[in-house]
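for the record, two folds in this file. i put them one after another cuz i was lazy. first one right below, seq on top, structure tokens after. the second one comes after a little note so u can tell where it starts
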Amino acid sequence: MNEQHDSSTDGATAASGSACEVTETWNGEIAVVAAAGVVDMLTAPQLEDALRKAVANKPEGLVVDLTAVEFLASAGMGVLVAAHDAADEGTRFCVVADGPATSRPLKLVGIADIVPLYESLDEALAALRP
């Protein structure tokens, strides 16, 4: 059952040039929070809010899809770690990150040692299904 919740948030900021769009969809009992654009100190709160709402729904799994992220700053990485820590013990958590803008920084700072990373959404969903 694929269900789309339109919790899309557009964080275009004219002065900074930062823009981030965050959406939440459900694939069965797995929540998928996808970000697109720039995740920096100005836009990370949007991702944080979406992840907080997804965690509150107590999904069996939570996937953060960063496939369409062009830039991931340390603020965004902090949001990922906080969401991972906030998820219930029964909620499996992972991140989709492929490429130099997302997977490389997550690996360099050690987040990939804490949070499982996958190269595609399909891989992540397959890993989280029972």
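(here's the note) second protein begins now
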Amino acid sequence: MVTQFVSPSKTKEFIRDEEINQLQGVVIADMGDIDSLCDAFRGCHAIFHTSSFVDPHGVSGYSEQMTFLEAEGARNVIEACGRAAYAKRCIFTSSLLASIWKGDNVDRVIDETCWSDEEFCRENKLWLALGKTTAEKVAWRKSKEMKVELVTVCPGLLMAPLFPNAHKATSIPYLKGGQVMLQRGVLATGDVRKVAKAHVNVYEAMDYGACGRYLYFERVVQRLDEAVELENGLKMHGKLSGGRQVLPEGNEEIHSKLSNSKLAKLILQSSQSFSCNQ
């Protein structure tokens, strides 16, 4: 299914015909129109809300206005899920950015219990972090009101190895404040294919009690050479390593303060269950 704020007539600008033909079905809905979302969700056993907003005309790719659209979309999706879905379940894609930005107590371990400080994000113009934080909080509040069973997956910077240029537009707003993330040991990445698989793992585990938030990442950038490799791969030379010294020279690593043990345990249990059923 495709959901978007733009006119449905423009769908082919975003999805090629061959991609549409590979899907079992495509329903076009306006994220700002709850009734159209209800029509799209009717009969669904679960809703995977993975949309994100990028402003192609903004310098950073994500403007302050996008934060409002992100929250509105989240609210509408959860309400429509509660009103129309056959099973009131939603797997919601948030972001690691919704957990890592705090003005104080920066030395604590960051896990699913942590939330980014909205005022800190606003003051530092971390718009994508603000958008993801507010949207996820809106989703949690609305899910309680609509009695929707909600889980959220919060991935790090998404990487697409087979399509190296596909993620550049989303990387620009994610890496706002990238040097600070490096210094704090919270800049992490994940393969988009594995992130998608993690969503499925979480959905399947909901029958067995999976709930709450799940942080997802595979690799934390902890060394200068890793930072240079990442920025070169994104064609953002000096974005992370330039200017002032943000990481130790050589092979010395910055200690990572991120924990994804909750999701790692769920995925391990899922793989063991799958092996037993073979």
